Amino acid sequence: MREDILLLVKKIFEGSQEARKIVSEHAYTTPVEYSHELSRLTGGKIHLKLENLQKTGSFKIRGALYKVSRLAGSVSGIVTASAGNHAQGVAYASSVFGLPCIVVMPESASITKIEAVKNFGAEVILHGKIYDDSEQKAIEIAEEREYAFIHPFDDPDVISGQGTIAWEMVEQISKIDTVIVPLGGGGLISGISTVMKNLTDSVEIIGVEPENVPKFAESLKLGRIAVTEVKPTIADGLATKRPGKNTFMVVRSLVDEIVTVNEDEIARAIHYLLEKEKVLAEGAGAAGVAALLGNKVDVRGKNVAVVISGGNIDLTAIYKLIIRALANSGKLAVIYGFVPDSPGNLSEVTGIIARHRGNIIDVIHHREDLRAPAWHTALKIVFEVESSQVVEKILAELESRGYRFEKM
Description:
The chain is of the alpha/beta class. It has helices at about 5-25, 35-40, 60-70, 85-95, 110-120, 130-145, 155-160, 165-170, 185-200, 215-220, 245-255, 265-275, 285-295, 315-330, 345-355, 390-400, and strands at about 30-35, 45-50, 80, 100-105, 125, 150, 180, 205-210, 255-260, 305-310, 330-340, 360-365, 375-385, 405. The strands form three sheets. The chain has a six-stranded mixed sheet with strand order 1-2-10-7-8-9, sandwiched between helices. InterPro entries: ACT-like_dom_sf, ACT_dom, ACT_ThrD-II-like, Ser/Thr_Dehydratase, Ser/Thr_deHydtase_PyrdxlP-BS, Thr_deHydtase_catblc, TrpB-like_PALP, TrpB-like_PALP_sf. Pfam families: ACT, PALP.
């Protein structure tokens, strides 16, 4: 490695050792759970590091605590920019060390996250459509008020704080061959890879980022930091358009592989974790499991640690994701067809669905559908079934009774 990278890695590693005490005093040592089901599916021994159970609901509090602890006593206040987890982490850390805090959030930030930040005593300013607009505003405020600006991922102290996760995993898991880490701006994976590679050179570090925002994959391919188009993603916590200068150096030097996952794979992972593991993860937090379920990494015969980086997800988003996952698995069906607009027909149609153990969720009439034959009405029916094969049986029986329905 080049001398500048060696010095950066040395600083991060030494900082992580110091950060352990600060983090242990003000945050949780999160549990590790062995996943029998994921181990069966993948052929590896899969351990889940549950940072979704951390204070503020994500790992971000670690880096924030260490950074603010280093600033306490030398600054009059803290400013940061974030749409979510980093904002809560910095707001909490500032309250711990008695410093006023301003958080600049994009105008699109959810009410839930805005209120969470305010609950830790921070002042929230909404500015700009995307993070970059908010960051520029935060830097301006920091200069005006002579506050310290904390970058969400490209600060060595922040990276050191995130690295405390690795120290905990080494103590909690007897042997680790591979660590799978969600990859946003790179602060988390930089901290973890620095500590893990210093403790055991043979460990494999794999980063997972969304296909919709593959900034590290593209940057490494080009050999330089590249700006990537940010497309909408369920894993909004990973939606950074470019790597950081420091994180890019660390990732290029210490991370062994980067894989990407698509939106359906992330949604499936969130649903899987909730249904099978009883773990509530946000999109970013589920990225590592998405890579496993999508067969993006080969972990057969390996002891694997997967970081579930956070669990801050809106209830409405959970509902939509569950519906999406059920539909993709064939356990939720939507059919559309036309029936005579006279008594008894709806009852017969729903009776056929019930005989096949279908659980009807919704029935919607569309009398204004001009495609309907005279004296007929259009019906959209949403129902749960055991499998997609059952839907085909229901459609066949409906047709045998003179009702023409199609899957939507």
